[in-house]
DNA sequence: CCCGACAAAACACTCGATAATCCCGTTTCA
DNA sequence: TGAAACGGGATTATCGAGTGTTTTGTCGGG
């Protein structure tokens, strides 16, 4: 080993509390463990995550900048809410942007890119969407492979900020999808859609691939939108019941 | 006045120190008053902006999330540096993304959008690019009108996150442009380019407008790139001189 | 029964100080 | 001569207490 201690240590400074709690919060929001719209009280979180308030505020400021949380001046932070209108804009943007990145990727991708796409597609096909047959139970391996497949498709577009943007949109959309999957189950053949996109991409048919990808994202979006509507109705009922209970208790 | 105090107060809670210092820092970075790459020491900034360290760290965390600053674990924050490679990716992404948004805008824009574009273009044409004839002195009014023109072009694309993304890219690119303008002067006829874009947009020629816009952004990018090179050479010389001075002083 | 003023509690935000870590010039050893 | 250990000084990261704002709950009047 010719690397000195100074060189190896450069990168992995022990994670600071602020970033550690940032990562955990981020995941808890994306996975839906922290429901949309709820208050993020600094003291509570501080107790829950075992970190001081200063690091927590730092993490929250970061999340707010990313759009995963909302800051309200003098009134603290809340989890970004799951608004159908915002979601529609999100999906529309994804369709446009990912299709654009895919077209560019097809125009510029080399043989290595083709191989990566084909490999990612094969890996994805092997995995079951849900861990159980009857109802939906998220399969972490599938989620990972799914992410990898979509990333591989766009990887050759040679515009890092565009890629980063697509990834952020995907995470945000995935948050909605998580919420939706808690109450509904996608009936369509997602695997076939992925296969069709991969085929078009490898055929270098940019227009067809872009259109298919946009359609794929749109379908998922529509599915989530319906689930979201049901959720809203559900919550409305719950709120009514709770209100009734309060009245009854008096 | 029929509005109660409760209603009017809701929005404008007096700016918290954290956000106030965030805005100031942000501007100082974008305007180039804080040079790329320099360290952002919490204590110094705390003294300079007259705020505590906690709000400052919050602001810095936010800026880091936006990409205007870099956080290095256990080693504080630095201003994002002006790297030619990153800049190239930025420009490429802008060309792709703004052209996309413009095409969408043209496809969806109504009469009000047309009017807004035409008006913004006229306002821009009236203003001089530089306050002095011989050398470049930034004209705030022109900068504002320029921003407004480009925003008006994309306004009808009906994809809020896409618009927000374009705006962020523009700000980042403008930071580079500020640095470049400090040492060079654009020789081409920027006004004519704007006019051509507006004309194509109002003609509803999406392809031509998109191409012209991409070309416009690319030219500006090329200009900045050259200036950046000169800047690098300049800094190299300065560093050499400083080094020589140190040696001479011994 | 509803509405608005009022007081108390909860909470966000801020500050100053302390602990942990890094940086850099110096010394020590092979 | 060069590389590794070492310390003083600077800087980051963190904590706990204090201040001001918002929210909640209560009470009297419409």
Main pleated-sheet profile of chain A: 3 strands, antiparallel
CATH class of the largest domain in chain A equals: Mainly Alpha
Number of domains of chain A: 2
Q: Tell me the Rg of chain A in angstroms.
A: 21 Å
Oligomer: homodimer
Query: Secondary-structure element sequence of chain A?
Result: HHEHHEEHHHHHH
Strand order of the largest sheet of chain A: 1-3-2
Question: Which CATH architecture of the largest domain in chain A?
Answer: Up-down Bundle
List keywords for this structure.
homodimer; 250 residues; mainly alpha; Arc Repressor Mutant, subunit A; 2 domains; 3 strands; disordered C terminus; DNA-binding; WH_DNA-bd_sf (chains A, B); DNA-binding transcription factor activity (chains A, B); Tscrpt_reg_HTH_GntR (chains A, B); GntR_C (chains A, B)
Explain what you see.
- 2 copies of one chain form a homodimer.
- Chain A is mainly alpha-helical.
- Chain A folds into 2 domains: 75 residues, Winged helix-like DNA-binding domain superfamily/Winged helix DNA-binding domain (Arc Repressor Mutant, subunit A, Orthogonal Bundle), CATH 1.10.10; 151 residues, GntR ligand-binding domain-like (Four Helix Bundle (Hemerythrin (Met), subunit A)).
- The first copy, chain A, has 10 helices and 3 strands; from the N terminus they run ααβααββαααααα.
- Chain A has a 3-stranded antiparallel β-sheet with strand order 1-3-2.
- In chain A, strand 2 and strand 3 form a beta hairpin.
- In chain A, 34% of the residues are buried.
- The N terminus and C terminus of chain A are likely disordered.
- At the A-B interface, helix 4, helix 5 and helix 8 of A face helix 4, helix 5 and helix 8 of B.
- The structure holds a DNA duplex (30 and 30 nucleotides).
